[in-house]
Amino acid sequence: MKQQRVRLMKQIKEESENFRKWKMEQDKKLMQLKAKDRKREVSFIISDTCIYVTRLKLWSIICLSALTAGVISSLTKKGTTLVQTTY
Fold this sequence. Notes:
Distance between the termini: 122 Å
Helix content: over 70%
Strand content: under 5%
Number of domains: 1
Low-confidence stretches: none
């Protein structure tokens, strides 16, 4: 009876240790996956930000050129020149 109890206690300890090792491995794998996922999310955010900034720059260039073209065309319609010379 005592031997059986001792054997059972050893088995419980072994199973507990095996479970602890397994749990540590699983947690390590999970943390690695989360870190990889965070890196991927950050790279997506960076690329999205770069795309947004590029579009914003292009839009500002388009608007500026459209305004400039509009000012030039409105001045030429009025018959005025961009540079006025006075003597």
